[in-house]
Write a structure and sequence with these properties.
Structural class: alpha+beta
Number of helices: 5
Number of strands: 4
Largest sheet: 4 strands, antiparallel
Distance between the termini: 138 Å
Shape: rod-shaped
Length: 224
């Protein structure tokens, strides 16, 4: 636009020069001079207006550019926040999956232990039932009484051992431990050989012989 105005100015100067060459009168020169001044003034005003408009356009462009830059910064900030939120959600999802897997493993382990305990309890109950039956067979012969006491134990009470005091009790306690082995304790009077008898019945699983041997040990203690 500035180049167009300069071209127009050059044109006006040429026209003035041509008119100046074609006349010799002072009046015509004055008219041409005034016309030239008016033309220069008009051109200057138009050029000034164009420059002001262009300055305003530059200012508006810079302002728009600044606003766009701020908007881009806000968009980038929101994008970063969104990416961070997505990453956090992903981490939480992974943590939840890990916790869920651990809970499932615990459930399965609990189920296995529960089944094992249930099987062990059934086995122990059957074994104690067989012990009770075996003890009943020898109750009259050996003067034996069996009681169930605290701690899932059976208390075996012998009588008719001491000839001087046939009603005197000789007793011990028995239970099945976690390995389903016989565990003998609390003998009264104390028997030094009780641990050996316990080991023997674990190996042979012959409980009848074990009861007979315990009675023999009590009898021997009385005789001694």
């Amino acid at each position: 636009m500035v180049e167009d105005q300069l071209a127009l100015l050059d044109k006006n100067i040429n026209e003035f020069w041509n008119k100046f060459k074609s006349t010799d009168t002072a009046c015509q020169m004055a008219g041409l001079r005034d016309a030239y001044k008016d033309s220069i003034k008009t051109f200057s005003e138009k050029l000034s207006m164009k420059l002001k408009e262009e300055e305003r356009m530059v200012e508006m462009f810079l302002e728009y550019q600044n606003q766009i830059s701020k908007q881009n910064m806000l968009i980038q900030e929101k994008k970063d926040n969104l990416l961070q939120l997505i990453a956090e959600v992903k981490d939480k999802k992974q943590e939840l999956e890990v916790v869920t897997a651990k809970i499932q493993d615990l459930k399965e382990e609990y189920s296995r232990k529960k089944e094992t305990i249930s099987t062990a309890n059934k086995s122990n109950a059957e074994k104690l039932k067989r012990l009770q039956k075996s003890a009943d067979l020898y109750k009259d012969r050996l003067g034996l009484e069996i009681r169930k006491i605290y701690g899932d134990k059976l208390q075996f009470i012998f009588t008719n051992i001491d000839p001087k005091h046939p009603e005197s009790p000789f007793m011990f306690s028995l239970r099945l431990n976690e390995a389903r082995d016989y565990e003998v304790s609390d003998s009264s009077p104390h028997l030094e050989c009780l641990a050996e008898l316990q080991e023997n019945v674990r190996k042979t699983n012959n409980f009848s012989a074990f009861l007979a041997n315990v009675r023999k040990a009590f009898t021997a203690k009385v005789n001694n």
